[in-house]
Amino acid sequence: LSPSNGTAPTPLTNYLDTQYYGEISIGSPAQMFNVVFDTGSANLWVPSYSCSPLYTACFTHNRYDGSKSRTHIKNGTGFSIQYASGNVRGFLSEDVVVVGGIPVVQVFAEATALPAIPFIFAKFDGVLGMGYPNVAIDGITPVFDRIMSQHVLKEEVFSVYYSKDPMHKPGGELVMGGTDPEYYTGTFNYMGTSEAGKWEVNMKGVTVGEEMLFCKEGCTAVIDTGSSYITGPASSVSVLMKTIGATELAEGGYTVNCDLVKSLPSVTFHLGGHEYSLTEEDYILWQSQFGEDICSVTFRGLDVPPPTGPIWILGANFIARYYTEFDRRNNRIGFATAV
Ligand SMILES: COCCCC[C@@](O)(c1ccccc1-c1ccccc1)[C@@H]1CCCN(C(=O)[C@H]2C[C@@H](N)[C@@H](O)C2)C1
Q: What region does 172 belong to: left with phi over 0, alpha with psi -120 to 50, or beta?
């Protein structure tokens, strides 16, 4: 797998099965950054050298310094992107960005206001949006679109492998231009994206054990490489948690008694005529804190207001089980069993 045969791999790091990120460079000489490759957004931003000292999160991460890059092009337009956790503000710049060995001249944002929560917990520096152009703030052409227009990729697709085992090296892999057979078995099942220009599909239902409990009339599922967990409508997730005997923590997380994990039901997502099941191994995060075992459930309630919502967001814990191909040529998503 190398740029020569039209596919470009980027190894990813897995931090506690909740943060997956890979390295890119910006500028000449190269300034290195760790970024989350996020199908739920479509802009690239990294912390800025001119971030105010008020923002601690800037100083615990790599920062881009335009004055040190001979290929830096000044822009200065204001920028702000909104996440579920709050927004990131800054200004636009342009420079050579290298992803998987492929250089592109890219407009990106230098973040000058980076909220401590949650970014002091981020092991990565910034976010590289892998979403469609119509999701991009300020109409900026996304990185992957710039790479596609160079016609260096064998196929206009990218694929994501997230490992489930923090000791596994690499912790994951992004392949632009194809898939990596080393990380999946069997064939891909494909389904068309539901709405033009978003990495989301129609879901026909969510089954717990043998009973279809949620999304019975159909709903939308977003396949989001930038989310750690699976989120669903708060009411559905609270019923799901009651069904598996989980208790809610203060900050919206859930835990179960580790002794009961073995008997937990599988949760099955009905997508594109196929059933994608997660067992307790896929949705329980077994952590030992201060010598005792904490079994947290990697589901979260999240109410997304209409018309976008109600939606289910299938994040890293789903992708870790189902190797995912994002196909821009055919506007479809493919799943195969990850190894
Ligand atoms: C697989 O690796 C996941 C990376 C972690 C994502 C995340 O857990 C995170 C944790 C710690 C520090 C920062 C961030 C984080 C925050 C914002 C952008 C990117 C990463 C996010 C926490 C808030 C909710 N959430 C999203 O809205 C995410 C949803 C997604 N689409 C993004 O646009 C924002 C996920």
A: left
> Hey, is 39 helix, strand or coil?
coil
Q: Percent of the chain, pLDDT > 90?
A: 88
pLDDT interval class at 251 (50, 70, 90): confident
Residue 324's contacts (CB-CB under 8 Å, 6 or more residues apart) are 159, 160, 223, 225, 333, 334, 335
Q: Is 189 exposed, middle or buried (0-12, 13-18, 19+ CB in 10 A)?
A: middle
* Range name among 12-21, 122-131, 306-315 with the lowest pLDDT average: 306-315
Indicate which residue of 17, 38, 95, 327 is catalytic.
Answer: 38
- Pick the catalytic residue from 17, 95, 125, 224: 224
The rounded Å distance from CA 177 to ligand 1 centre is 25
Is 224 known to be catalytic? yes
Q: Which residue's CA lies nearest to atom 18 of ligand 1?
A: 83
Cis peptide before 53 (omega within 30 of 0): no
C-beta of residue 127 within 8 angstroms of C-beta of residue 137: no
Model-level pTM?
0.96
ipTM for this prediction? 0.98
Specify the pairing of strand 299-301 against strand 230-232.
Answer: parallel
> What residues line ligand 1, using a CB cutoff of 6 Å?
19-20, 36, 38, 40-41, 83-85, 118-119, 121-122, 127, 224, 226-228, 316
Q: What is the mean pLDDT of residues 142-160?
A: 98
DSSP state of 64: B
pLDDT in tens, 72-113: 999 999 999 998 788 999 999 999 999 999 999 999 999 999
Instruction: Pick the atom of ligand 1 nearest to 118's CA.
Output: 12
* DSSP 8-state symbol, 54: T
